[in-house]
Amino acid sequence: MTIVVKRVDVELTKPIRAQILRPGLPLSHSSYPGEENPRSGAFAAFEGDAILGVSSVMPEQCPWNPNIGDAWRLRGMAVLPQARNRGVGARLLEAALTHVRAEAGKFIWCNARVPALSLYLRAGFTIEGEEFELPHIGPHRQMWLAL
Which CATH number do you get for residue 127? Predict the structure, then answer.
């Protein structure tokens, strides 16, 4: 079956976010400031009617370089375990980047989970700073990409 990525209502992304990124935490922990901004975008990868993964982007200043204009944040990238290594993450990331470019974004940043670093590196992202731990979530690295 073909994998299709579509822009979706952000509410559709929250159960996958909760399951993959915030296991054991209330669904409310899968909501992010700024996702209600009309310029923000939420995406889901589908195979038939089944959601395989999700991603979201929103305008947000970069914490380590607040002077960069037109900065966006990638958040909530999550792919179900059974859908990994099939290009789902790359397609979700490309949909998010396409959206940011269409909104005239010039810079995108994220807190990437350490096991997913290779996905971002393949897409051209650069690692910034040292590894850090997010409570209940695990080790992360800050990453960025100039668009």
Answer: 3.40.630.30
